[in-house]
Design goal:
It is globular and about 65 Å long. The chain folds into 2 domains: 1-246, no CATH class; 249-525, no CATH class. The chain has 525 residues and is mainly alpha-helical. The longest helix has 38 residues, at 44-81. The protein has helices at 3-37, 44-81, 84-111, 113-120, 131-142, 145-161, 166-186, 194-211, 213-218, 232-247, 250-262, 269-304, 308-335, 337-345, 352-366, 369-383, 389-415, 423-446, 454-474, 481-485, 489-513, 518-522.
Length: 525
């Protein structure tokens, strides 16, 4: 891999990570405003999260998951081997067909909203706060969001294939800004405040799609309506996508199980799980998804050219970068769970009990972070080769494990009268992430489609040692909930900032002393 290619790869990863970070910052502001200004005492936010989870599930497995992941390798094939006119014909035919399918699914989703809510949150049926009816009404507004966000994801896949990562990466900021505006300015105009969120979500999806149009026009690839469902490229997408629907959505399927069970637990459980999951999604998106996003087009290209050497060096590069980030982030979230939640959320409607309930779930989710990030990288390895069989096998085992552990943990915790049985759902999700990672990695190594170089193992050991030293440093400070709740807003923000910056400096200083440099990671072995 030449220096220019390495630099381009690092630049693209940095672009995606920076804009993803920006999106997540606005996402945290959005979520904080939701919890601070909208009371969840009657379960209104729980109802919104359920109504949001259903279209978001389709977005993750179709938009950002199976559909976009299947689309890139096929489009890469056409880009590498065919004339631009053939590429354009493929885009026209595929976008037309996919748009029609998504439109039909959206209409059906709105019509069967009561059934969907019953399936995903059966515990709401017996709720005396009207959560079931509220969730149904919200879902009828939010479900069409799936149509627009899936088309936005495909547009992003086209741009990523042509090495344009900035537009797709910054697009999620638009949704977060729309929801922030909805909370700050439109909540007072609704008798039930969460309806402002539902309409904000729908309009945010529309604006996101419009935002992607200009760069695609600039590439000369803006799709025209072309009815050709028998196009060979669409057939390839189907062949790759159908197994991917399950294989690329392990976490989402696990979260659906979590929601079903959480709907039977005390009011607020779904909100606590949602918020804690959001904090884990930051590093997962910043590094797992960002690295995978940049890896997929490049790995597909190397595979199409039968360049196994560059393929393996690129994959090891991504794996090393994931290792360097996942371990310190995991321990940081665990040790700083209370300070983070108190600093960002403990105001007005978000009580000390909410802090505790969210904190224990955050700790449990954080434990699975390295497995989640590693799985994202490894799934990309398979999908760049259009190989769906192994990811599906691994995903099936992980989902079965998660389902069994969900039931087991929650039953035990409820029986023991543990205050916060939802922690069992988060812990089950983390364990299943490692199950998924284990089977993906073992198969990749055994079949020799991923050859781990020695430097990757060395970096793993260095990262673990540096993380241990960083964690020891953090434990010297008073991180208790009681102490942080007595701080003023300024003290909370200042102390949290100093802790995170100091811990980061110590971690990377240890890596530097171990002569662990990014150039060394990039350099082919």
């Amino acid at each position: 891999m030449s220096l220019s290619i390495r630099e381009r790869f690092l630049k693209n990863t940095a672009v995606v990570s920076v804009f993803t970070m920006l999106s997540r910052v606005f996402g945290y502001v959005r979520d904080a405003l939701m919890f601070i200004f909208i009371s969840n005492a009657s379960g209104a936010l729980d109802a919104f999260f359920v109504a949001f989870r259903i279209p978001n599930f389709f977005r993750r497995i179709f938009g950002e998951g199976a559909l976009s992941t299947a689309y890139i390798p096929v489009l890469s094939d056409y880009k590498t081997k065919e004339e631009k006119s053939e590429v354009k014909e493929f885009i026209d035919s595929s976008i037309t067909t996919i748009s029609l399918i998504l439109l039909v699914v959206s209409v059906i989703g709105v019509l069967i909203a009561p059934i969907l809510i019953y399936l995903i949150a059966p515990g709401f049926i017996n709720s005396d706060t009207g959560q079931y009816d509220l969730s149904v009404s919200l879902l009828k507004i939010t479900f069409p969001y799936m149509l627009f966000i899936c088309l936005t994801a495909i547009a992003g896949s086209i741009l990523n294939t042509y090495d344009n990562f900035a537009y797709p990466a910054v697009t999620p900021v638009i949704l977060n800004l729309t929801l922030i505006i909805s909370v700050l300015f439109f909540v007072p105009y609704f008798d039930e405040p969460v309806f402002a969120l539902a309409w904000g979500l729908l309009f945010g999806g529309i604006i996101q799609l419009i935002f992607q149009i200009y760069p695609i026009i600039k590439l000369g690839l803006f799709p025209k309506i072309k009815f050709n469902s028998k196009h060979p490229g669409i057939k390839k997408i189907k062949e790759i996508m159908l197994p991917m629907i399950f294989g690329s959505s392990v976490t989402q399927i696990n979260m659906i199980f979590d929601t079903v069970i959480a709907s039977f637990l005390i009011t607020g459980s779904i909100g606590w799980l949602y918020m804690s999951d959001r904090f884990v999604e930051l590093p997962l998106a910043l590094f797992g998804i960002s690295i995978a996003t940049v890896l997929l087009p490049k790995l597909s290209e190397y595979h199409n050219k039968s360049d196994d050497d560059s393929y393996n060096k690129t994959l090891n590069w991504g794996f090393k970068l994931a290792i360097l980030i996942s371990f310190p982030t995991m321990l940081g979230l665990i040790l700083l769970s209370d300070p983070i939640l108190i600093t960002l959320l403990n105001y007005k409607e978000f009580s000390s009990n909410d802090v505790y309930m969210t904190s224990i779930a955050l700790i449990a989710f954080s434990l699975g972070l390295p497995g989640m990030i590693g799985s994202k990288i490894l799934i990309t390895n398979y999908y760049s080769r259009k190989d769906t069989r192994y990811p599906v096998n691994a995903a099936l085992k992980a989902v079965i494990c998660n389902f069994i552990l969900n039931i087991t943990f929650v039953v035990i915790l409820v029986y023991k009268n543990f205050n916060g049985a939802h922690i069992g759902l988060a812990l089950a999700t983390s364990i299943s992430a490692y199950v998924n990672f284990f089977f993906l990695l073992s198969t990749a190594v055994k079949t020799k489609i991923f050859i781990i170089d020695k430097n990757t193992i060395v970096i793993l050991l260095k990262s673990i040692i540096a993380t241990f030293i960083m964690s020891t440093f953090l434990l010297f400070f008073d991180l208790s909930k009681k102490t942080w709740m007595n701080y003023s807003l300024t003290d909370r923000v200042g102390n949290l900032f100093l802790l995170i910056i100091s811990a980061s400096i110590i971690y990377f200083a240890i890596l530097y002393l171990f002569n662990t440099k990014l150039k060394k990671i990039e350099k082919p072995s």
